[in-house]
Amino acid sequence: MSMHLSRRSFAQASLGVAALALLSACGNNSHSTDADGNVTLRFAWWGNASRAEATQKVIAAFEAANPTIKVKGEPGDFSGYFDKLATSVAARDAPDVFTLGGAYPAEYANRGALLDLAKVKGTLELSGMDKSALANGQVKGTQYGISTGANALAMVVNPAVFKASGVPRPDASSWTWDDFRDAAARITANSPTGTFGSASVLTHDSLDAFARQRGESLYTQDGRLGLTQATVADYFGFSLALTTSKASPSPSELVEQANISVEQSLMGTGKAAMMLTWSNSLRALGGAAGTDLELLPLPGESPTPGIWLQSSQYFSISAQSKKTEAAAKLVSFLVNDTAAAKIMLTDRGVPSNAAIRAVIAPELSKQGQSEVAYLDKVSGTKFAPTFIGPTGSTAVSEITARINTNVMFAKTSPADAAKQWMDESAAAISA
């Protein structure tokens, strides 16, 4: 399994300081204005240049509809986004609105850094949102984030690389992880130097899918680890097998690929046949590669599916903000406005508002329509429930990446790595 973007650690110490400050002095003046009577909001997000350009267009449309509110966009690269955000929260200089993903909503909410959105329910319109999408942004029953759209893990495939290698496409309705590894290894062997069957290293999210296919889960509902040491050992063993079989690049090449842009990735440069990543990456990857890519189900989905629907990202409002009503207007615009939707399309996932999905359907490219079709198929799967990671779980993704790197470089065996992962991960979520 592979994925282009790995989730970063949360900078626990910084947020611990921030939480203490918030709990003791979290004043909230929702009508705070600038000297000229206007309101200026700060809005932070991560992503590539095309996302930044589209988001700035949405900001311009919002400002035109709300002439007394100005928005200062603060785009950033994924690799440093969460460290920078944690630092700004600790310094009591957080953006008014920012995007979160994965387990970060729970981390920030549990540390007092997010606004309870019930406080702006008169401004924040949520009636059109899918119920499941709203639930994804809740922590202990409180709404702290609004889903930007849904996505799911998928295997992105470049048919042109398959064709050039002479390796037949696997039967995606029944393929196994061994089928994936073997096909990827044959593609590497039959392709020019620098082109590979599999684009990148296994990740924390793929460990989650790996466990779910075995009837386990990364976390339990009560915030404990829900997978066995044997499963973790098999996961690390499979990761090692991808590199030793040359299905994937060498460990050093994979480390270099871990945090580069979509445009620079192996899939983005047309030098990979397959890549496990999130479905909403399809359009950007296809645009970078200059060819139509396809989405296939994960290997190993039979008899027990490991797939799940996940909010691509969340829009949240800082508990430090003194402009919460204006911030709520911005979030409402981002998820409900048709003009904004036609600009963003599926860049942050397939919209969680049925009316918005209908509006953008005619605007979607072939690959955008493929994303929606894939999500429709996934939504019909009877998959196990998902649980947001407990406080401390963002550190587990870093633990996974670090130990996996050691396995690939043969510094530790898969069995020893699994024991280390279980010990460190259990300590991280119980701290």
Automatic annotation (TrEMBL):
InterPro entries: Bact_solute-bd_prot1 (IPR050490), SBP (IPR006059), TAT_signal (IPR006311). PROSITE patterns: PROKAR_LIPOPROTEIN, TAT. Pfam families: SBP_bac_1. CDD domains: PBP2_TMBP_like (cd13585). Transmembrane segments: none annotated. Signal peptide: none annotated. It comes from the Bacteria. PANTHER family: ABC TRANSPORTER SUBSTRATE-BINDING PROTEIN YESO-RELATED (PTHR43649:SF11), ARABINOSE-BINDING PROTEIN-RELATED (PTHR43649). This is ABC transporter substrate-binding protein. The lineage of its organism: Bacteria, Bacillati, Actinomycetota, Actinomycetes, Micrococcales.
